[in-house]
UniProtKB/TrEMBL annotation:
Swiss-Prot/TrEMBL keywords: Calcium, Cell membrane, Endoplasmic reticulum, Lipid transport, Lipid-binding, Membrane, Metal-binding, Repeat, Transmembrane, Transmembrane helix, Transport
Domain of life per record: Eukaryota
GO CC entries: endoplasmic reticulum membrane; plasma membrane
Organism: Nothobranchius furzeri (Turquoise killifish)
Domain SMP-LTD: 126-295
Official protein name in the record: Extended synaptotagmin-like protein 1b
Alphabetical list of InterPro entries matching this protein: C2_dom, C2_domain_sf, Ext_Synaptotagmin_C2A, Ext_Synaptotagmin_C2B, Extended_Synaptotagmin, SMP_LBD, Synaptotagmin_SMP
């Protein structure tokens, strides 16, 4: 029998889990035979030699032709960048494919982890999963590939060739979309818009395996696509057309293959990817739309280029608290910044002027943006610090313009994100589009006041020019058919249409939008030119005043071209709309809210629970320890060392940690802690002693537990406590329960010892607020923050209301009521932005000293809010009444060499005789006692 067959027969005996407990595993003897050396292959040797020669050949050629070393270094750098870009793209593709294959497991893991950290008031948006639609897409995906092939060959390829002379030979010969269909991650339906349409937001993701084109690979695309089903008709198929577009550019990752791998070289990859994305955006990203008619004879021009929803006038006013980026001497000297802002709404981008050397710039600039879709389009703002090299980032924020449409006017401070500090002040106005001239003169008069403040005059109207087609254009020189394009100018703004090649009957089907300052004085100038922009094929001028007398402020007709052929004409549809700020609607909303607030009957005082303001103060004096267990042993425990002890005290949900005493088994801490506690039964004081270690877990040195009930019963305990769970050790504690009283005589007993932080307790009961202003068009999600000194407490956040009710109590320790200031700040959460409303009443706690029973219970006006905004709260001051504050006592240290003097919560370490002398001579002189004690410590 061969060795292999012998090993096979013994394979079942190798597993100890199969054999019984009495069976012995047989020993397997494996004979190791020496491996026979292989013969040297001549082909392998020649192949290795060829590779070495091929690697050295470029070096030889570079030397032979005396190529500069810098060129070689440059080539190596280009290759390294290309290799890095390729590997990064491949890694992203692998990650996306792994996520797609294990989507359910990854989603469950991530969501489970996130949900544990979400606050209770966070609600998920109304985005629905549509797995049934994904199953349908999987079935029809091959046919989608056929449509995409026609789209790429017939639409995108000509557009790319026309965009650059270097791409004249680019073409798509074969398209394969892969077998993994596009996935719709979620879908959201909007019902608040026009009833004659169905508006859907589809969150899509395409991660194909891979999608291979002859020229490039496009494996990843994700974004939010808006789908509009309109018009709705009374016949099958009910929907007249489907309009699709991306509100924001989708994220696209292009992976080039074949010879086009060279386009992954850094610099070229940005240019190539952006050109592809620009081509896609030219027909699928706002303001461009893809319209698919479902019924014959439907005019899709108004669907492809509809009128905007409105115009938003943006007042960029100022900023505050921006981060300082211009530091000097490598950050040793802090400077300021030279801030400027970049504002984006879709493809519209504006850049403000930069203000030198300030963290609170005042821009006072006005911009106007056209809004095509709400909800959906957002105002995106980024703030930068202007530098000579690279500008520093100072923060960003964004706002859904649908909120502006609902509120008409939004005048708010917006906190910047992705930065530790800074906020920006905007005033946003929604300008509706009026189809008549009834309010035109009123708009022009109102704009005169804005013109004096703004650098550019505001607009009174917008003009939409729909360029359809032309007929019978003249031939260009040489009797050749022209490549016509159109230049449309209004005032000093000129827009160019696309070029139609080799035709005298071009069809452009494009729309252009212009802002108009005064339609009585401005004209539309249209010039039809050849692609070289030298030869003019015709021109046309249309005064805007001609449109003012027409119904619906529009012109939709053929126009005869001037300076052209006798039959040359152009079809243009022009629409004018007056921009109207409906301030009357804003005022009526405010008046109705004010009337509703005044008519409501408000309670006069709070109604707290009977347990309110019944807490007491526990002072814990941690003095010393004795005979603690040594933990820092050496030589495996043969040589006894010492310890570095510290103490942790836990009571009432608070934890206190003492300082570490190095190398001492009889430490002296002399520390005091204060905690506010209710007198509920079952509360205990837990104390644990540890040895501090730098390189490992701290060693346990003992614990003890003291019942709070025993402390309250005794009022005052001065005792050594033995530690449990260890061989030896005890801790010296002084526990002083300080009940509270509303007698103002307690002010005379305010301690002069800086170590004692609490002479009184301030109890605050926040019941409700009323008349809060609407924020960003919605009732705010409101919470209150109560702050005394450096200590702040926050209420829960009430769901959307202008009259929130909290009914929450808080307690603060007060050192000197004559100086402390209590502030109450009301903040709101509206939409996706958190806005600080700056509504804040302030109360000096010394005002309570003149009130009966040291209580204020009333409505307080909120500064910085509307006139009717107020908050109802109760503030009650109580002084600590400790019977042991005035009795000095001396504690002998275990070593016998020192003693501790306690007087009015003042602990002094020194010689026992000296401390006795101080106690006898200066028993009634607080100030001199402190001076003498300082002198003793100094000596």
């Amino acid at each position: 029998m061969s060795d292999n067959s012998e090993l096979s027969s013994l394979k079942g005996a190798e597993s100890p889990g199969v054999s019984g407990p009495e069976e012995k595993t047989p020993m397997i003897v494996v004979r190791a035979e020496p491996t026979k050396p292989r013969g040297i292959s001549a082909v392998a040797v020649l192949w290795t030699f060829g590779k070495c020669l091929g690697a050295l050949l470029p070096v030889y050629l570079a030397g032979y032709y005396r190529v500069s070393t810098s060129l070689l270094v440059c080539g190596m750098m280009v290759y390294t960048g290309w290799k890095h870009a390729r590997e990064a793209k491949e890694e992203r593709l692998r990650s996306a494919m792994q996520l797609l294959d294990n989507e359910e497991e990854c989603a469950y893991t991530n969501v489970s982890k996130i949900k544990r950290d979400l606050p209770a008031w966070v609600n998920f948006p109304d985005v629905e999963k549509v797995e049934w639609l994904n199953k349908v897409l999987q079935q029809v995906w091959p046919f989608v590939g056929q449509y995409m092939e026609r789209l790429l060959v017939e639409t995108i390829a000509p557009s790319l060739r026309a965009s650059s002379s270097h791409l004249q030979t680019l073409s798509f010969t074969k398209v394969n979309m892969g077998d993994k269909a596009m996935k719709v991650v979620g879908i959201k339906a909007h019902t608040e818009n026009d009833k004659g349409q169905v508006l859907l937001d589809l969150y899509i993701r395409v991660i194909s395996n891979p999608v291979t084109f002859r020229m490039f690979v496009c494996p990843q695309l994700h974004g939010m696509m808006r789908v509009i089903l309109e018009p709705l008709i009374g016949d099958v198929p009910i929907v007249g057309a489907v309009t699709m577009f991306f509100i924001r550019r989708p994220k696209l990752d292009i992976n080039w293959t074949g010879l086009t791998n060279l386009l992954d070289i850094p610099g070229l990859n940005v240019m190539s990817d952006s050109m592809i994305m620009d081509a896609i955006a030219s027909f699928l990203v706002l303001p461009n739309r893809l319209v698919v008619p479902l019924v014959p004879g439907l005019r899709v021009a108004h669907l492809r280029c509809p009128l905007p929803r409105g115009v938003v006038r943006i007042h960029l006013l100022e900023a505050q608290g921006l981060a300082a980026k211009d530091n000097y001497v490598k950050g040793v000297m802090a400077g300021l910044s030279d801030p400027y802002a970049i504002l984006r709404v879709g493809p519209q981008t504006f850049t403000s002027k930069h203000i030198d050397n300030t963290d609170a710039p005042k821009w006072e600039e006005v911009y106007e943006v056209i809004v095509h879709e709400v909800p959906g389009q957002e105002l995106e703002v980024e703030v930068y610090d202007k530098d000579t090299d690279k500008d520093d980032f100072l923060g960003r924020t964004k706002l859904d313009l649908g909120i502006v449409k609902k509120s008409i006017i939004v005048d708010e401070w917006f906190t910047l994100k992705d930065t530790p500090t800074g906020r920006v002040h905007f005033k946003l106005e929604w300008l509706a589009l009026l189809p008549n001239t009834e309010r035109l003169e009123q708009v022009l008069k109102r704009n005169e006041g804005i013109t004096s403040k703004a650098s550019t005059p505001p607009s009174s109207a917008i003009l939409v020019v729909y360029l359809d087609k032309a007929e019978a254009l003249p031939m260009k020189k040489g009797n050749k058919e022209p490549n016509p394009l159109v230049q449309i100018s209004v005032h000093d703004i000129t827009r160019d249409s696309k070029t139609c090649y080799t035709t005298v009957n071009p069809e452009w089907e494009e729309a252009f939008t212009f802002f108009v300052q005064d339609p009585h004085k401005q004209d539309i100038k249209i010039q039809v030119k050849d692609a070289d922009r030298v030869q003019t094929l015709g021109s046309l001028t249309i005064p805007l005043s001609r449109m003012l007398g027409n119904a619906n402020l529009s012109l939709d007709q053929w126009f005869q071209l001037e300076n052209s052929g006798s039959a040359s004409r152009i079809y243009v549809n022009t629409v004018l709309r007056v921009l109207w700020l409906d301030e009357d609607r804003v005022q009526s909303d405010v008046s109705s809210n004010l009337a509703a607030g005044l008519s409501k009957q408000l309670v006069h005082q709070t109604s707290p629970h009977s347990s309110f303001a019944t807490e007491g103060l526990l002072r814990i004096h941690l003095l010393a320890g004795q005979n603690l267990v040594p933990k820092d042993n050496m030589m495996g425990g043969m040589v006894k060392g010492k310890s570095d002890p510290y103490v942790k005290i836990n009571i009432g949900g608070e934890t206190f940690t003492s300082q570490v005493i190095k190398g001492n088994l009889n430490p002296t801490w002399n520390e005091m802690y204060e905690v506010v506690l209710t007198q509920l039964p079952g509360q205990d004081l837990h104390l644990e002693v540890f040895d501090k270690d730098m390189d490992m877990k701290d060693d346990f040195m003992g614990r003890l537990k003291i019942s709070l009930k025993d402390i309250i019963t005794s009022q005052y305990i001065d005792q050594w406590y033995n530690l449990s769970d260890v061989k030896s050790g005890r801790v010296h504690l002084v526990l002083d329960w300080v009940p509270t009283s509303s007698e103002s005589d307690g002010l005379d007993q305010v301690s002069v010892n800086k170590a004692v932080s609490s002479a009184a307790l301030l109890f605050v009961y926040v019941e409700q607020a009323d008349g809060l202003p609407v924020s960003l068009g919605k009732d705010p999600k409101v919470g209150a923050e109560i702050k005394l000194g450096d200590v702040s407490r926050k209420t829960t956040v009430c769901d959307r209301t202008t009259s929130p009710s909290w009914n929450e109590a808080f307690c603060f320790r007060v050192r000197d009521p004559r100086k402390e200031i209590l502030s109450v700040k009301v903040g709101g959460l509206s939409g996706t932005e958190r806005c600080l409303l700056s509504h804040k009443p302030t109360l000096i706690t010394g005002e309570l000293l003149s009130e009966p029973e040291l209580v204020l219970d009333q409505w307080f006006h909120l500064d910085g809010a509307s006139p009717e905004s107020q908050i109802l709260l109760r503030a009650e001051l109580k002084f600590g009444q400790s019977e042991f504050d005035t009795f000095p006592s001396i504690y002998q240290h275990p070593s016998g060499s020192q003693a501790l003097l306690r007087y009015k919560d003042l602990f002094i370490t020194g010689n026992e005789n000296v401390l006795n002398l101080l106690c006898e001579v200066h028993i009634d002189l607080n100030e001199y006692l402190i001076v003498m004690c300082m002198s003793v410590n100094n000596d």
